[in-house]
Amino acid sequence: MATHRTLLPGTVFPALSLAKVGGGSLDLKPAEGRHLLVVAYRGFFCPLCQGTLQDVQGKLDKLQDAGIDVVAISAEPLDVAEKTAADWGVTFPVGAGLKGKRRPAAGEGAQADLRTLGLYVSDPRHYQPIDWRFGEPGWFLVSPDGKIQYVDVASTPVGGRVNVDHLLFATKWVQQRLVEHPEFAGYVWGGVPAAEGGEA
């Protein structure tokens, strides 16, 4: 029986590095004292992904003011991702080249792989002018300590899409809650039980 592994809140986000649109590499880790929102998109052929990234772009200042930096990632080759970012008007960092292996080979360790991130993987269909496997949508909010705070991945194009307004509301609510209840900082929803090495 086929199974799917999903990254859990409270666990450390994989330390991956991807080719970056505009040159250099993109390390998927938060800057000191800041959260990192990682948005996984399907590709240039997906109008829903375009809407998601453009919504994030339009609210980028609000996210940054809330202490949240943003990156987008996909299985698109670098040259394709360059065009996608330009056509969609995306100015925040974009990482390209996630691989669509079915499973990492034994002994390979962490790699820039769709499965490493717990994303669902699809093969291209006849109407998609691509020849690479791609990941279905997902997003992760990584805390300054490198652990996953929120995660939402989907097996369909219509799911796994970050609602920026809801995320900003939740972030502000948590910050206000911390003033009266500092222990709130250690709470993890949907995460690893304490007996398995995570938060209670």
From TrEMBL:
GO MF annotations in UniProt: antioxidant activity; oxidoreductase activity
Classification via Pfam families: AhpC-TSA
SUPFAM superfamilies registered for this protein in UniProt: Thioredoxin-like
Record domain Thioredoxin: where: 7-176
Descriptive protein name: Thioredoxin domain-containing protein
